[in-house]
UniProtKB/TrEMBL annotation:
Residues 26-330 form the Endonuclease/exonuclease/phosphatase domain. Keywords: Endonuclease, Hydrolase, Nuclease, Signal. It comes from Bacteroides gallinaceum. Pfam families: Exo_endo_phos. This is Endonuclease/exonuclease/phosphatase family protein. Residues 1-19 form the signal peptide. One of its GO terms (molecular function) is endonuclease activity.
Length: 341
C-alpha cells in the first residue's frame, strides 16, 4: 500500500506546476512552407530539431501537398525523434510539444485576408492558450510611406499626411482579425488561462515608428500609430521583443525583408528603391503573475535588404543564426518564458 501511495505522489508532483520551468515560443513566417527556397522544407525540419521550441507559430502555411503541412512536418519531426502535436490549419499553423486539448478557428481565411487560430494545452498543470496569426498582406500602408502602393506595389506619390496613411491602413482586414483575437483571449484570461500570440502581422509597430526614428528607414518624417500593435497594447497585451529591448535605435528588431543568398534580391523586396526594413513578426503575451518573460532573440540571418542592396545589420540585435539553408524572406522571433509560483 505504501508503494502505491508513493507512486501516486510521484505522479502528482510530476504533473503539477514546477516553478522555474522555461518554455520557448518561435514565431516563424516560412514563406509558403519554404517551397520558394530550394531545400526549404528540410531546413524548417532541421532548425526545429536543433532549437526544440516548445511552440512554433507558423505563418504562410499553404498546404500545397496532398497532406496538410502541419501533419507532414509532425511526421518528419517524428522520423527525427522529435514529438510534436498540431491541428487543422490554413495560412497559419502551430506546433506544440504538449498534447492539444482544444483548437479553434478564431478568424477564418477568406480571400487571403489573414487568419487567427487558437490552441489550448497544459504546461505542468497550467493551462495556456497559444494563438497563431498571419494577417492581411494587402493595403500595407508602410509601403505607401515609401512611395509604393501597398496593394499592387507600384510606384505612387508619397502621402502627405499620417491621416492619408491610416486611411490606406484601415482598408485592410488586420484590425478585424486582431479584434477577434482580443475577444477570444479575454475569455481565456477570465478563465485563468495564460495567453501567448505569435504572428506575422504585416504591419509595423507604433513602438517603432516614433520621434527618434521618424527620419530613419525611409519613414519620411512620419510618426505613425500603427493600429494592430496599438490595439493589442491598449487591450493589455505585451510585445515581448520590445519589452526586452525598449531601445528602438539600438535594437530595431527588423524581421523583414531578410536577406537570403539562395534567392535573387528582386524576389526579396517589394519596394526596390526604398528601405523597407520593418519589424512585422511578433510574439505578444498577456501579463500574468504565473508567467515571466525571460528573453527574446531574432532567429535568422543578420543580413537584410535595403534599397535592393544586401546589407549586414550592425545593430545590437541578438541573433540565432541558421546552420544551413534559410527557408524564408523573414526573420523569426524566439521568446523564452519562465513559469513562476
Amino acid at each position: 500500500m505504501k508503494n502505491v501511495i508513493l507512486s501516486l505522489l510521484v505522479l502528482f508532483f510530476s504533473l503539477s506546476v514546477r516553478a522555474g520551468e522555461k518554455f520557448t515560443v518561435l514565431q516563424w513566417n516560412i514563406w509558403q512552407e519554404g517551397t520558394v527556397v530550394p531545400g526549404g522544407y528540410d531546413a524548417i525540419v532541421n532548425e526545429i530539431v536543433r532549437l526544440k521550441p516548445d511552440f512554433v507559430t507558423f505563418s504562410e502555411v499553404r498546404n500545397y501537398h496532398s497532406t496538410r503541412f502541419c501533419d507532414r512536418i509532425v511526421a518528419s519531426l517524428k522520423e527525427r525523434g522529435e514529438t510534436y502535436h498540431s491541428f487543422y490549419s490554413d495560412d497559419t499553423g502551430l506546433l506544440s510539444r504538449y498534447p492539444i486539448a482544444d483548437s479553434t478557428v478564431v478568424y477564418p481565411l477568406h480571400d487571403d485576408h489573414g487568419t487567427v487560430h487558437r490552441m489550448l494545452t497544459e504546461i505542468y498543470g497550467r493551462k495556456i492558450a497559444v494563438y497563431t496569426a498571419h494577417l492581411d498582406y494587402l493595403s500595407d500602408a508602410y509601403y505607401n510611406v515609401r512611395g509604393y502602393d501597398g496593394s499592387t506595389w507600384k510606384k505612387i506619390p508619397k502621402p502627405e499626411s499620417i491621416a492619408e496613411v491610416l486611411a490606406v491602413n484601415d482598408a485592410s482586414f488586420r484590425d478585424d482579425a486582431i479584434k477577434c483575437f482580443i475577444k477570444a483571449a479575454r475569455k481565456d484570461v477570465e478563465n485563468g488561462v495564460m495567453v501567448v500570440l505569435g504572428g506575422d502581422f504585416n504591419e509595423p509597430s507604433h513602438l517603432d515608428w516614433i520621434r527618434e526614428t521618424k527620419d530613419l528607414y525611409d519613414h519620411n518624417g512620419m510618426i505613425i500609430p500603427w493600429t494592430v500593435p496599438l490595439l493589442l497594447d491598449n487591450a493589455g497585451f505585451v510585445d515581448a521583443y520590445r519589452t526586452v529591448y525598449p531601445d528602438v535605435l539600438s535594437y530595431p528588431g527588423f524581421t523583414f525583408p531578410a536577406d537570403n543568398p539562395l534567392i535573387k534580391v528582386n524576389r526579396l523586396t517589394w519596394a526596390p528603391e526604398s528601405d523597407e526594413r520593418d519589424r512585422i513578426d511578433y510574439v505578444f503575451f498577456y501579463p500574468d503573475r504565473r508567467l515571466k518573460l525571460k528573453d527574446a532573440v531574432l532567429f535568422g540571418p543578420k543580413g537584410s535588404i535595403r534599397k535592393s542592396e544586401r546589407i549586414v545589420e550592425t545593430s545590437k540585435d541578438r541573433f540565432v543564426e541558421p546552420l544551413g539553408v534559410w527557408p524564408t524572406d523573414h526573420k523569426g522571433v524566439l521568446v523564452t518564458f519562465e513559469l513562476v509560483e
